[in-house]
Amino acid sequence: MSTLNNFWNALLNELQNGLFYFNGPLDLIVAIFDIAVTTFLIYFVLKLISETQAWQLLKGIVAVVIFVIIGGFLGLKTINYVLINFASVFAIALIIIFQPEMRRALETVGRKSSNIFSASGDRVSSESDVRQVVESIVVACAEMAKTKTGALIIIERETKLGDLIESGAVVIDADLTSTMLRQIFYVNSPMHDGAVIIRGGRIYATRVHVPLSESYHLKRELGTRHRAAIGASEIGDAISVVVSEERGTISISIHGRLYTLDDADSLRAILIRLLSTNNQDSSNLPNQLRKILRIDKTEKSAKAQLDTEKGDDTFDDIEELKMIEEHGSKHISGLEVTDKPHRRKLGIFSISLATALALWLFVRITTNPVVQKTFTVPIQTVGIENLYERQLDFYMGENSVRVSIKGRQEMLNSLQPKQIDASVNFNSINQAGTYNLETKVEIEGISSYAYTAFREPTHVSVIINQVGKTETTEDDKTGGTTFSTTATGSNEGNSEQAQNNQNEDNNK
Prior knowledge:
The protein has helices at 2-17, 25-50, 54-73, 77-97, 99-117, 127-146, 162-166, 178-184, 224-233, 264-275, 285-299, 301-310, 318-327, 341-367, 384-389, 409-413, 488-507, and strands at 151-155, 170-175, 195-199, 202-208, 239-243, 250-254, 257-261, 332-333, 370-382, 392-396, 400-408, 420-425, 433-438, 440-443, 451-456, 459-466.
């Protein structure tokens, strides 16, 4: 808490002093780039968390932190003590709580990196192959839904599911056909227990045991197969298709969300969109569902019109989809889907930008604070030539000045005394006398990004003497003129010496 207090005081002090935050144009560009990258990183993390159950937990943590900060400013010592002594415990707890989200974030980064730097791997290579795979799955699911045959099909994409396959699964690596899928999930088949993994457009493994999802948002009526489907979709970017043996419905699960569809046509439209080689990003599935099902509505206009007149619960009406997402329905379970994605994104971006700016200010002020450094530099004289032209000489009691400069620590550490000019100006002096001249300080190269906190002395006392007058001697018989430039003090000394010599001659 003391660190936050120091940061706040330092920030207010800099704002009051009007000190520039940047050491130059390059520093400004680097700062903008730094803030932009930090904003993108925070936005990526918040957007990922906002699509999970950890979003509400994060809101609670932020509320507690804000309360603790306010309590610290108000002098609530108990809260401050608890925060300081249990900060490490809280950090470890956050890592444990957000472990699934952190893993998913790293997997997302890895998938996007592999899309850039690696080949397609086991992906389905062409659109025709994608449609063939989708058609086999859709036909099989439609037939099994009619007969209420339970099935769980997991479509592997970028994230490999080798850990699931190693735990007692049967690897068959067979061609993917609707007939093969129906035979596998036939009730009396020895391989119907468990899930089927589709890899590279082929049936790679059967009897795969999938860990159940532990999400507390799931409806109680969901069975083991549906929980397993959600659990599989939480592992990377896998897509789970599940057929209920109790209700005969078809559902799809991705990124920990379960969507129950009304018919196989909706499943076909969604799978084609998600598995298309031109669209590998399924992180924004709710918005994609709207677009997919809107297109599907035009293709099935006659049937959709009939279903709408009957009041059937379908996804064909977009406004109905929004109401379902707001109030809950049998069509969507799992996490809530927002009906205003653009406003939500704008809100997350605003929070990310504000957080990035606050972090940038905190890091900049704490790691590169405004400090004060003192230098001793010699005093330079300006206009001394004009002084000599007027046959004047000077005596200055101070030859150096102590200058204290305020600026960024990194900048002052690189500042050399030779970059600091301290001077007094003689241009305004026309006659002998005692003057009190101001010492002026200039910092070479960084005058706009630092300022002089104080200088000592601020004024220097200068004594100006008349050098002497012009005298004509008769030694030069050519008629020339000789100028004697003897200081006034020296003339007085010479007169005294001449008087002493005269006294010695009289004594003799």
